[in-house]
Amino acid sequence: MTLIEAIRRVFWKSGFPRFLDLLRRTAFKPILYLCIGKPDIIRVTLMKIAYNICMRPSEILCIARSIEMKRPCRLLVFGLGNDSMFWSMMNRSGETVFLEDHPVWFSRVTSLNPSINAFFIEYNTILIEWHELLNYPRYLRMDFPEDIEKKKWDAILIDGPVGWKNTAPGRMKSIFAAGNLRTSSADVFVHDCNRKVEQVYSDRYLGNDNLVRQVGKLRHYRFSDRSCDPITSDSSVNSGLMVESCSGIPVTAG
Questions:
Q1: What angle do CA 157, 162, 164 make, to 5 degrees?
Q2: d(C-alpha 134, C-alpha 87), whole Å
Q3: Of 98, 97, 87, 93, which Cα lies nearest the Cα of 73?
Q4: What digits encode the pLDDT tens for the residues 43-77?
Q5: Residue 80 pLDDT > 90
Q6: How far apart are CA 35 and CA 56, in angstroms?
């Protein structure tokens, strides 16, 4: 066991996370409702701190504003976390579904938020195989619950599964799935695009021509009936891309 793993284990056994969860269900709730009512950079920053959300405020705001324009819609999220209740409540009157492969996170988040609609799924990939799998879509297909597979989704957020170590499942399958489960006018968000696998698979299966902006580590893809086929699209840099700084201020792509 590494030192970091040991510290994490002590932290989780200390009872402090359960105390924080209690605060998030009670004292911190007004912050959550403020963000849902009118998300802006200040309110989202407060929510990020209170709920210990990994995404940057500018990244959260980018997704939230897109959901505001589309709701009520069908929102599919790969990954459960401290931000899950926010996404579910942002899409009020719509349908929001979460997919999670980590049993501890699945149990923790669904027990804290019983109203969340979530499915436990399994991946049979490991990150280290990403290059070999890239051009073989048949190995990237996966079985989803019928409630997922039979529908098309207006907005998809890919923030799972784990993709930062070679033994993790990686996000190859979730990115591929987004290209197949989306509607013809969907918005698709891929987090952690500072990493090579997320970059390469998003270029390959979502299509760089559909990339409209990058905010921090988040890529935002927007599709239309005229969008190119993401599986065969060129992965060259989109010259029309707007890159936004972590503060959310647009800057010209270099």
A1: 115
A2: 30
A3: 93
A4: 999 999 999 999 999 999 999 999 999 999 999 99
A5: yes
A6: 14
User: From the CA atom positions of the chain, what is the Rg in Å?
Assistant: 18
Quote the DSSP letter at residue 23.
Answer: H
List, in order, residues 6 or more apart from 219 with CB less than 8 Å away.
189, 190, 193, 198, 202, 211, 213
Backbone angles phi, psi at 152, to 5 degrees: -110, 145
Conformational region of residue 79, where left means phi above 0, alpha means psi within -120 to 50, and beta covers everything else: left
Which amino acid is residue 225, in one-letter code? D
- Segments in the chain forming alpha helices (H): 3-13, 16-25, 29-37, 41-51, 57-70, 84-90, 103-112, 130-133, 146-149, 172-181, 196-202
Q: What sign has the CA pseudo-torsion 166, 169, 175, 179?
A: positive
Report angle CA 187, 92, 84 to the nearest 5 degrees: 70
Q: Is the dihedral of CA 176, 200, 61, 100 positive or negative?
A: positive
N-terminal to C-terminal alpha carbon distance within the chain = 43
DSSP 215: E
Band the pLDDT of 230: cuts 50, 70, 90: low
Q: How far is CA 34 from the centre of its chain?
A: 22
pTM above 0.90, yes or no: no
| Element (DSSP H or E) covering residue 194 | none
Domains of the chain: 55-252 (3.40.50.150)
pLDDT at 241 over 50: no
Mean pLDDT score of the chain: 85
Q: Please say whether the beta carbons of 248 and 214 come within 8 A.
A: no
DSSP string, 30-54: HHHHHHHHS--HHHHHHHHHHHT-S
